[in-house]
Amino acid sequence: MSEQGIANFISGTILDGRQVAPSDELLMSGLLDSLAVMTLVAHLETEMQVEIPADKITFENFSSVQNVMSLLKTL
């Protein structure tokens, strides 16, 4: 999955069409809350057929689409 694919999922499913860029701050800005992060985690695990360990679901790893991509590259 690409950065744009992740951004599109967040925009279309979580933010009801509000666009996000890969570098946008997702958590500090309030765009995503803990439930939204878990929705994103479930989507990524299903789409990419990976398991994201609980200790990797951190503020830093989910603070932007770019950081999510960096995390996924380590799995």
TrEMBL record:
InterPro entries: ACP-like_sf, PP-bd_ACP. Coiled coil: none annotated. It holds the Pfam family PP-binding. SUPFAM superfamilies: ACP-like (SSF47336). Residues 1-75 form the Carrier domain. This is Carrier domain-containing protein.
